[in-house]
């Protein structure tokens, strides 16, 4: 657990809680894409996530499908469709975590057509002041690490 400058344990970051609640372990294969990919990569590595790589949005990863794909930028429906059709892929049971503008209806961005190419279903939406975080899962349930 991270510690505060005083040496006392600090509370987990809300994004780390989101990952834990979704069954993401420190050993999960995590791929990050988007304009803030490198900052996200460093954040994850500092918190002990071992298998994290940055991938380009319009190409598939040589490492294969990810357990978790984090899109580190705000996406609209067109950007999300392009990413799901031509970008990195999520393994069965894996997660897609993506930001959308606050107030956009979940089914405008995550409706039928947007998620069909990836076989994903919206699992959770966290409303923020300016952006919302959306968690979608592909197919079967991601196995939790013991």
Give a verbal description of the structure.
With 146 residues, the protein is α/β, with parallel strands linked by helices. The relative contact order is 0.18. The longest helix has 10 residues, at 37-46. The chain has a six-stranded mixed β-sheet, with helices on one face. The chain has helices spanning 14-21, 37-46, 77-86, 106-109, 112-115, and strands spanning 29-33, 51-54, 66-74, 90-101, 120-126, 131-138. It is globular, with a radius of gyration of 15 Å. Residues 141-146 have low confidence and may be disordered.
Short structural description:
The chain is of the alpha/beta class.
Characteristic terms for this protein:
146 residues; alpha/beta; 5 helices; 25% helix; 31% strand
Secondary-structure blueprint:
Elements: H1 14-21, E1 29-33, H2 37-46, E2 51-54, E3 66-74, H3 77-86, E4 90-101, H4 106-109, H5 112-115, E5 120-126, E6 131-138
Parallel strand pairs: 1-2, 1-3, 3-4
Antiparallel strand pairs: 4-6, 5-6
